[in-house]
């Protein structure tokens, strides 16, 4: 007797080329949420996705406004009594800069050697379309095992700025038994994984003001504290020699990894060699008492994301700049809180900034760190799905990134998230030449089909 | 009996409005030498100046090519036996950035309250036109007291990149008894001054390379040494707590100010209050054993002129940048040498840069520091001219800026320079809202007329 799920899997295999064509259409839309001038394109991506959901049979599809970019919502609720899965995703992407480093234009998706290249191919239009394709396949069986709701936001890459308000406001509409979140990626093409923790984020801009205008360095060099130098001095003081963050109280509430977690981490293939080859740095860096895999997920960090002062175009300009700034973000672990970290940065600057300059901290955005309940039945449904497709039990680990949606859904709807994904560490997300490994993506579609049918039991 | 010089002075006073109109025409041309796209404008400024010199009776005017921007040459040599004055100047200007801080467009000169606003109004189109106007007035008497040659370059703001080659190649053509260089500015509107020393310059770009591409800070934060942070750490180490430069050997050859110089410096009005009000900083900075006036001219410095890494546009991007750079320049005093300073920077980086990053130093441009012979008769001719117009003896001091021309003329033609100028410290040169104090400028024209006639004696 043929299992219904096999019909769905068969359908998915028959439609692989068309699924890919749909994904390429989606990637072609440059939905860069952080750039104001791309606002119409972000909307266009939302409208495209809404149309696509309608075309596969999803009902009550809406492009719902927020104070920022809209949320795409849709539902299929024709199996009363069956579990309801809330499918989370985001349709916005990072800017493609530096554009000149792309081998093919970022918004003209192209397949080269099993990889689909394009901004958003992996993060996360590919992941969204894997789940959408799996739902399509399940619906086509006419024996859809579960109810589904879609919550696809347009602001993940800018810290899900308005998602909290949205989830709070529409908590009842979003109510479900579990959230499927495929934004967490996997460890390697041959190692399926489930993520049970995410780092939080506190993103800020630190500004240093010196002279009231740019000064001629010949006329004034020697009497003013150069703001670029002063900022450099302050940034240099934010880490000690062992790579530990020096903001006062930074580690106070940070949860220390348990012995069991550190034991489990030994199963991860992400060793020194992995990080060296995936970053291209001459030598790894960071807290010496933790392995690289631990440092990128179980430990908090402070990063300079950008830095600007004075004359940076080709050629020279002999000025003392009036102003210098750095974009700085901290990745946080349980039980650190972004609000505390902003305070710690201000306390650090208050204590360390010299009287020769003025400074300011702009709090830009933040998200709380999170730990997911591993006892949830949906976690087992996903673990089983991954094992069926990959032939091995998944690894459980924590992730270094931040997903606001997971926190807000827990907070306002009490919906836990199953965190997995079919994006690989070397997909180059947030970098030039982002790509998606298509064989892994296709296994991902099969996995989500199994996950949906496993929930039926 | 009317002195011939009085006729010239009278002519200058009669023609003040037209002299200003000529200067405004000159300022309107955006001759920004550092920006490739402004090359045609730089050439237009050269052609405008050549035409203007011809119009006042200068002969053999040529726009002479170099490997960069051309030099405007011209001569009037009809007084055999009389001294020959080589008039140096530059017709190029700094970029107007940040443009949004200008109260009126930088290349639409406008007079507000005795000040002419515009990029180059003070540095140094105004200075060039003061001398050109004085020469015009002297020529109009039909009793021109001296011979003159003009050497007006187009690359001063980019370190006079090709002037050395030009002076070397045309040393005979440029031969003169003295060079008049009005690029040195004056101390205050009521205090004429002659400059007898200039700081040299070593301008470089320091580049720090980390990962092979921008990385997601969530996925990789904690294992790579952030290049922006590494650059900040290196910059922070370039000064000690007393504001002294730490490059190995930096001060070794730096000539210490003599007791007599430090005594003369007490006459300067440029005290703490002056520097506070002219810079707008909350507190002065620098070597505690020297006064501010000494620090900006008798002491060498190291400045960050620009700094760039990662994401600097509005909004946030959670990356670890692949790369960071700083434009760094040192102001040098006798007997430091730019070539040594470049070596010292490399030695510093070799000793201090961690193995977690790669680095590179690009040597951009340089000029030697210089001391001028105060015994030259032309120095007295200028001192007398300044005293006649201002009613007081000028102050002798050293300047903090760098003028390549002075060095090259000394080196290849053995022509000493008389360094003065009618630009004021608060003219905002190299800054937004650059302006020229017109009453001082008009006195400057009179002064140059006296200087020319004083040389006749």
Structural class of chain A: alpha+beta
User: What would you call the shape of chain A?
Assistant: globular
Number of alpha- plus pi-helical segments of chain A: 15
Unreliable parts of chain A: none
CATH superfamily of the largest domain in chain A, called what? Answer: Zn peptidases
The Rg value of chain A, from CA coordinates, equals 23 Å
Approximate strand percentage of chain A = 15-25%
Helical coverage of chain A, percent range: 25-40%
Please give the most extensive interface between any two protein chains, plus how many residues each contributes.
Answer: A-B, 100 and 101 residues
Question: What's the quaternary structure here?
Answer: homodimer
Number of domains of chain A: 2
Quick one: biggest sheet of chain A? 6 strands, mixed
| CATH secondary-structure class of the largest domain in chain A | Alpha Beta
According to CATH, the fold-level topology of the largest domain in chain A is Aminopeptidase
What is the terminal separation of chain A in angstroms? Answer: 17 Å
Strand order of the largest sheet of chain A: 1-2-6-3-7-17
Counted beta strands of chain A: 18
Describe the structure.
The structure is a homodimer of 457-residue chains. By secondary structure, chain A is of the alpha+beta class. Chain A has two domains: 4-198 and 369-456, Aminopeptidase, CATH 3.40.630; 200-254 and 300-367, Alpha-Beta Plaits (2-Layer Sandwich). Chain A contains 15 helices and 18 strands. In chain A, the strands form five sheets. A six-stranded mixed beta sheet of chain A has the order 1-2-6-3-7-17, sandwiched between helices. Chain A has a four-stranded antiparallel beta sheet with strand order 11-13-9-14, covered by helices on one side. In chain A, strand 1 (59-64) and strand 2 (71-76) form a beta hairpin. The longest helix of chain A has 19 residues, at 438-456. At the A-B interface, strand 10, helix 7, helix 8, helix 10 and strand 11 of A face strand 10, helix 7, helix 8, helix 10 and strand 11 of B. Strand 11 (301-310) of chain A pairs antiparallel with strand 11 of chain B.
């Amino acid at each position: 007797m043929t299992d219904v799920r096999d019909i769905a899997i068969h359908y998915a295999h028959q439609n692989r080329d068309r699924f890919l064509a749909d994904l390429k259409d989606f990637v072609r839309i440059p939905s860069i949420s952080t750039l104001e001038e791309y606002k119409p394109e972000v909307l266009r991506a939302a409208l495209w996705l809404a149309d696509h959901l309608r075309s596969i049979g999803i009902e009550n599809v809406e492009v719902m406004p927020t104070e920022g970019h809209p949320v795409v919502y849709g539902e299929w609720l024709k199996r009363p009594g069956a579990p309801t899965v809330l499918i989370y995703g985001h349709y916005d992407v990072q800017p493609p800069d530096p554009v000149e480093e792309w081998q093919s234009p970022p918004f003209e998706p192209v397949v080269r050697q099993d990889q689909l290249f394009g901004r958003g191919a992996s993060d996360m239009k590919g992941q969204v379309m894997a789940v959408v394709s799996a739902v399509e396949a399940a619906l086509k069986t006419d024996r859809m095992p579960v109810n589904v709701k879609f919550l696809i936001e347009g602001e993940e890459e800018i810290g899900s700025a308005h998602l909290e308000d949205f989830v709070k406001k529409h908590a009842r509409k979003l109510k479900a038994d579990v959230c499927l979140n495929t934004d967490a990626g996997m460890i390697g093409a041959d190692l399926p994984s489930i993520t049970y923790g995410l780092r939080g984020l506190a993103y800020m801009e630190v500004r240093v003001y010196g002279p009231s205008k740019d000064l001629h360095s010949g006329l004034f060099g020697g009497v003013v504290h150069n703001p670029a130098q002063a900022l450099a001095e302050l940034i240099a003081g934010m880490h000690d020699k062992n790579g530990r963050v020096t903001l006062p109280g930074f580690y106070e509430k940070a949860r220390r990894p348990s012995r069991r977690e550190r034991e489990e981490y030994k199963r991860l293939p992400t060793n020194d060699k992995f990080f060296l080859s995936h970053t291209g740095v001459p030598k790894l860096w960071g807290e010496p008492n933790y392995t690289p895999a631990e440092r990128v997920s179980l430990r908090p960090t402070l990063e300079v994301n950008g830095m600007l002062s004075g004359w940076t175009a080709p050629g020279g300009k002999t000025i003392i700049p009036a102003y210098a700034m750095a974009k700085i973000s901290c990745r946080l672990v349980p039980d650190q809180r972004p609000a505390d970290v902003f305070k710690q940065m201000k306390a650090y600057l208050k204590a360390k900034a010299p009287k020769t300059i003025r400074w300011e901290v702009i709090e830009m955005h933040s998200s709380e760190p999170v730990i997911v309940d591993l006892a949830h039945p949906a976690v087992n449904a996903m673990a089983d799905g991954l094992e069926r497709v990959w032939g091995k039990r998944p690894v459980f680990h924590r992730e270094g990134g931040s997903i606001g949606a997971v926190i807000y859904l827990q907070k306002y709807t009490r919906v836990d998230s199953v965190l997995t994904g079919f994006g690989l560490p070397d997909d180059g997300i947030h970098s030039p030449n982002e790509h998606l490994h298509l064989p892994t993506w296709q296994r991902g579609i099969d996995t989500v089909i199994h996950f949906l049918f496993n929930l039926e039991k």
